[in-house]
Design goal:
The chain is α+β, with helices and mostly antiparallel strands and about 200 residues long. About 35% of the residues lie in helices and about 15% in strands. It has a domain of about 140 residues.
């Protein structure tokens, strides 16, 4: 919310099985974005394997970046078969299955699990390319949209280490959101946090 209120797009990558986008906070955030700024919270499912990942890695991008839908690439059954053959040939071990002392089947991360967390170079290039094209064509529409809905004048402030500049950061929509969360009992800030 802070980044968005300062006219920055947000993009979060998660495994497709992640429940993060379904958390009540994220659902409420999407509703707040729509209500306060008329900004849609988008999502796109895709396969990291189509960008050269070590595994097929079904993934999801979600956020406000308008290029999010453009990361989609079709994972054909032929591509999936080739990827699985390559993993089998390399004896790639993503997870390890075993039976514990009580006779229960368990699963834990295998020796190659960390390789699946690395972004492939082609994926980074795609994100950079889409973002650069968007920024080149951008007319500050996000900034204009936020300021018109929030009725806040656009102010250019030179970065300084002055704490008093917080008042100039125009974060009132975020403050109201956080205060509402405090009233509902869903957010309990430390006593040192002044709202």
């Amino acid at each position: 919310m802070v980044a968005i209120s300062r006219c920055c797009h947000v993009c979060i990558e998660q495994p497709r099985s992640s429940l993060m986008p379904k958390f009540p906070f994220f659902v409420k955030l999407a509703l707040k974005l729509r209500k306060l700024f008329a900004i849609e919270w988008m999502h796109q499912n895709f396969w990291m394997g189509t960008y050269g990942s070590a595994t097929s890695k079904p993934s999801t991008l979600f956020g406000t970046a308008p290029w999010i839908p453009k990361v989609y690439r079709k994972m054909t059954s032929e591509k999936l078969r080739k990827l699985k053959r390559k993993l089998k040939f390399r004896k790639f071990q993503m997870v390890k299955h075993y039976v514990d002392k009580r006779g229960e089947m368990k699963v834990q991360g295998g020796r190659d699990m960390t390789k699946s967390s690395q972004y492939p170079k082609r994926y980074g290039q795609k994100v950079q390319s889409e973002h650069a094209m968007h920024m080149a064509a951008c007319d500050n529409s996000l900034q204009t949209k936020i300021h018109s809905f929030a009725k806040v004048p656009i102010v250019q402030v030179q970065p300084r280490q002055d704490a008093a500049l917080f008042d100039m950061a125009q974060l009132e929509p975020l403050r109201e959101f956080l205060l509402a969360e405090v009233r509902e009992g869903r957010f309990r800030p430390k006593s040192s946090v002044g709202l």
